[in-house]
Amino acid sequence: MKSDMDKEKSAELTEPRVLKRRSYRGFRKSQEPFPLDDARRQGNISQLAFLLMGGRDPAVAFLNTENTKLGGRPLVIATASADGYAQVAAAIRASVRGAPS
Known about the structure:
Layout: H1 4-14, H2 36-53, H3 56-64, H4 74-80, H5 82-97
Helix pairs in contact: 2-3, 2-4, 2-5, 4-5
């Protein structure tokens, strides 16, 4: 005689599983698109940091850590304006040369 557990297992093996359909809302765009110039500066400063600082981890750590000399997070500063980009790029180059940033 089969136990209830055995009956459940055999039912699982013989009956097809019915998958519940997930509701899909799709990708929701932000209210305002990211300005193209800002996106370019963000991509360029990320690439510069990656190439000069020796890889992803040091670049991400530098760009996302508050920097008192720059007055904020380098990624935010570099993305906001061309002047900010120049300041952060100079700080990255200075840190690679061993000078204080």
